[in-house]
């Protein structure tokens, strides 16, 4: 297929682009980074610089595509003014899905976020109702990033109601690769008292890229939403024990697939997408959270 990948020069975008190229797809990468005209840097697929908050640019890159994988976004609410985060994320998604509907694109893969629950950057903190969190958990976003992802998923719902496009929204857990496992995840591996909104969950960027390929190639109808996280938690701790130790009875514990389970359930992705993650934090770090030599 001819696939457009937005945010193709970022951590997730690069991995997704390479995985799609490896599967034989004709990929056009799109990002705000200037094109490379010399042979010094090799990037997979074709590339075009574009600001997707501009509707004309979105229409230009989507024309002729069979599928769109929308990764591009400001990835959290804290590094930019709130209105910039919300406008950038929401308008880029709106422009792309609008263009995809008008051009008759078959598949739209929308990269959403685990933050959509709302407990990651709240002004009034709260905890998940139960764990592992799954796609049925209530969404209570407060911050501009979580809100932009929530509205982005609603744009997917609207698109499938008014057209024949098929959409999948992927909600990745915190994404890591070989360059940042130690700095991002090392502290949680050696000390589970380092808490986070995702209850010790994470995802390897290459497992996420595999899920993106499956979503791009999927024929699932309508709009489906999937959490994507590694099956184990950071550090391989006894999940039931650490959940009770640090949260008491504030979070309902539901059935676990394994003792060292993640705080996010990916049963739906395994069932409907056929996704089978194969990588773990332990491929990169020792039990003290330090990089393997």
From TrEMBL:
Boundaries of every NAD-dependent epimerase/dehydratase domain copy: 3-218
Pfam assignment, any one: Epimerase
Origin superkingdom: Bacteria
Name by which UniProt lists this protein: Epimerase
Organism: Conyzicola nivalis
